[in-house]
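User: Run a structure prediction on this.
Assistant: Running it now.
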Amino acid sequence: NIQKCEEPEMNIRRKYRCFVCCLLVSGICLLGFSVWHLLCSRIPDTMTVSGYGEIPKLFSEPVAQWISGEVTVKNGKTGTAAVEAAAGETAGDGYADRKSAGGDFYEIEYTLFGKIPLKTVQACVAAPKLVYAGGTPIGMYLRTSGVLVVGTDAIHAKSGELCCPAESVLQAGDYIKMADGKTLETKEELIDCLGMSGGKSVQLQVERDGERITCSVAPVLDESGAYRAGVWVRNDTQGIGTLTYVDEDGHFGALGHGISDIDTGTILAIDGGTLYDADVVSVVRGQEGAPGELAGVIHYSEGYKIGTIEKNQQNGIYGTISGFSLLADKMEQYEVAYRQSVTTGPAQILCTIGECCEAYAVELKEVRRTGGDVNKGIILEVTDEKLLARTGGIVQGMSGSPIIQDGKLIGAVTHVFVNDPKKGYGIFIEDMLETSIKGD
């Protein structure tokens, strides 16, 4: 009887041990898959390199010791033969010539412990790119592409009624291109057209979310005797930022992020603009919950124009510098570093707080090479005591300040952490240059 009692108990223990072993094996497999997936997600699908056979080191120590890369394919060759074949050729003349046009490339296979495959990356070859680093304040005046609607509102009609003719017709973010067949460039032209309507419906051509639509609004006579539609509009904006770079052809990039309308929060569609010389006159120090700012003066006169603004994109503003040969004498040239060569650790930012541009020490805390917000690919922290004493860290107006690491231009400051002004975000210079070349 004792033997009969022990056998069921032993079976239960055996089954329990098997269950625990299965859970343990499943947990190890799940952990291994999670680590593999995490490492793969940190490796980009494509990258730009400045040298043939170059194998970028994508991870910091000690992870970098576990992951190795090997050139696997180049014009049908593998391994050493691939590198030798690549080394005997010449890259394109300009940045992203091959990246954008599908030119020369080789493939790099990254593995874990030299055994477990992670990802095969296409490395596009570009010639070394030299640009002049900015760091100086600039004044910007931008004209919207049409008349921008920022909101609608009720008006008091002469009849005593409260009405809003534009409600449900126009939306914040609309760009009014034409009114009764007349092309609009300024809000004054729209006001004149509404004023001369005599209360009759005015036909409008509007651009909304990239599409042209036609609508009409019937202005009403207000208490002052003017015909109005109850719509708030603007046709321009201005502000101060920091110049990031100028290339050898005089094309510039600045801010590292687009200029958005303060009311709609959307990137402004522009019809050009002007770049002016500007001076920083005072600094409002940043503190937790209240970002500081550089207060400056923009010299809005013909003699202080330094360029034209042609594009306002998510990655910054772009255009052409006037009289670049004179400006180049005051700027230092740097080689562009691609994102995979950017590492956490010491770096510098170039910005103008007083009368001249200076370099200030920062620490790159995190480098995000894949996914996420392109304007927040770099997380940095100001470590320079002089800059911390003057500004408290990153402040508004410093957007576009070049980031330098190992003597190369790697990116630009874009945003500040609202709750910690010592920290901020940056964009890779590679993304700014590519946006400048590709256009809209």
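The longest strand covers residues 231-247.
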